[in-house]
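Hello Y.,

Per our agreement to keep a running log of every chain we model this quarter, I'm adding this entry. I've kept the format consistent with earlier entries: sequence first, then predicted structure.
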Amino acid sequence: QVQLVESGGGLVQAGGSLRLSCAASGSIFRINAMGWYRQAPGKQREFVGGISRGGGNTYSTASVKGRFTISRDNAKNTVYLQMNSLKPEDTAVYYCAAGISGSYASGALYDYWGQGTQVTVSS
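Predicted structure for the entry above:
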């Protein structure tokens, strides 16, 4: 099993920045792709983006492209989501995910999930 713990959420004004972190533990040798999802109140969970095992390839959904950056530090078993130019519509619970397959860009192929961290962007 793989355990994922997110941190770094909070309240920020529109235009501000936050960096989320997600630390992995357990059977981390199984992890290839890592990614982020979010779920706003009353909406379905949305795939924000993912990163390949080596960190050299990333995918971001159109609504965050150019504002959010995904990175990972395999020595620390941690993935990050740097969020800049935040908008009120970015308000959501953000979830870290890890996948056994190498398909980092496919939102349907993640196997493990964190508990989520709340991000609130005020206007």
